Amino acid sequence: MTTKSSSLNKVFADLPVTIFEAMSQAARDNNAINLGQGFPDDPGPEDIRRAAAEASLNGYNQYPSMMGLPELRQAIATHYGHWHGLKLDPMSEVMVTSGGTEALTSAILAVVQPGDEVVCFQPVYDSYLPIIRQAGGIPRLVRLEPPHWRLNEDMLKSVFNSKTKAVLFNNPLNPSAVVYPREDLELLARYCQEFDVIAICDEVWEHVTFDEHKHIPLITIPGMRERTIKVGSAGKIFSLTGWKIGFVCAAPPLLRVAAKVHQFLTFTTAPNLQAAVAYGLGKSDDYFLSMRKDLTRSRDRLTKGLESLGFPVLKSQGTYFLTVDLSPLGLNESDTEFCWRIVRDYKVAAIPVSAFYEQDPVTSVVRFCFAKKDETLDTALERLSDAVRGRKR
């Protein structure tokens, strides 16, 4: 049977293959080291993995509650109360989803109706815009720029208006590795309150912050408690990206509708993984601080190595990533051309940040993942040793 292309959903039918899949496939095809996609080499904390195995062997393996295991919802509420002073009712303000992307999808579809405008900041994660458009929403894009990627009054003034229904805000920001300070959060909160806007906050990197940078959830800013949907991810917190355990936290009127969307997406999530995440969230502060220390060391290792090769590195404040701004090098190629060249010629995969823009892209910045073993990073650096030389104008 032949299917007419005109009968397919244009929102998704016209989407290209994501740059993450394209570069990961190129890494496989070229036997390259993949510093593009954001996943660690490490298998994850053994005690948490053993807790999942134990729960699978000796626990309940049928449908768990749609909203998530009660012990996990309580653990999420307790965890955020401890780390951020955020008081949540685990039974009416916390929901478990199958990953952060599903959590964001549930939130967007719960809030956005046809004709609503949604403010998004470029560079923007690739799942946001298709889901907004599937809901009938209209993305209003704000262009952030290196080296600081900060918000300002003029950019918010240019997009917020009476039609603005929601803002989608990623903090810490992937791919630019910025942890936003209170000043920027208070500015965004002021506009949300002035225009009666709901903030959907992608905070999956909340525990992956470095140096003196501290993550501040937007929901904790005065005036934002009742108008914020906070999204978290156990996969990012515990370096278990394949587990796909997401968190949605919001006031009851918002969470109730997000839960109805979740009911018809994945409905529920593997109970053994939920039990293991509940165990993990109860670990002592030492675990989380040690995780940050280890990632800081890896960040610094890759930063120093790239700088020694002549790459201008923008300091990473959080996430698994650091970025390099190629513009001072005088190369006669864009970030995309650079990434295709190094995966082909030097057997190292990276991600061009221009792929995170739909309009007026920044075309000089490349993202590398440093959540890898020392030997992986060192081998990648060896391969890139002359990637800059010979390409200058």
TrEMBL record:
<keyword id="KW-0663">Pyridoxal phosphate</keyword>
<dbReference type="InterPro" id="IPR015422">
    <property type="entry name" value="PyrdxlP-dep_Trfase_small"/>
</dbReference>
<dbReference type="InterPro" id="IPR004839">
    <property type="entry name" value="Aminotransferase_I/II_large"/>
</dbReference>
<keyword id="KW-0808">Transferase</keyword>
<dbReference type="GO" id="GO:0005737">
    <property type="term" value="C:cytoplasm"/>
</dbReference>
<keyword id="KW-0032">Aminotransferase</keyword>
<dbReference type="Pfam" id="PF00155">
    <property type="entry name" value="Aminotran_1_2"/>
</dbReference>
<feature type="domain" description="Aminotransferase class I/classII large">
    <location>
        <begin position="32"/>
        <end position="384"/>
    </location>
</feature>
<comment type="similarity">
    <text>Belongs to the class-I pyridoxal-phosphate-dependent aminotransferase family.</text>
</comment>
<dbReference type="InterPro" id="IPR051326">
    <property type="entry name" value="Kynurenine-oxoglutarate_AT"/>
</dbReference>
<dbReference type="InterPro" id="IPR015424">
    <property type="entry name" value="PyrdxlP-dep_Trfase"/>
</dbReference>
<protein>
    <submittedName>
        <fullName>Aminotransferase</fullName>
    </submittedName>
</protein>
<dbReference type="GO" id="GO:0016212">
    <property type="term" value="F:kynurenine-oxoglutarate transaminase activity"/>
</dbReference>
<dbReference type="GO" id="GO:0030170">
    <property type="term" value="F:pyridoxal phosphate binding"/>
</dbReference>
<dbReference type="InterPro" id="IPR015421">
    <property type="entry name" value="PyrdxlP-dep_Trfase_major"/>
</dbReference>
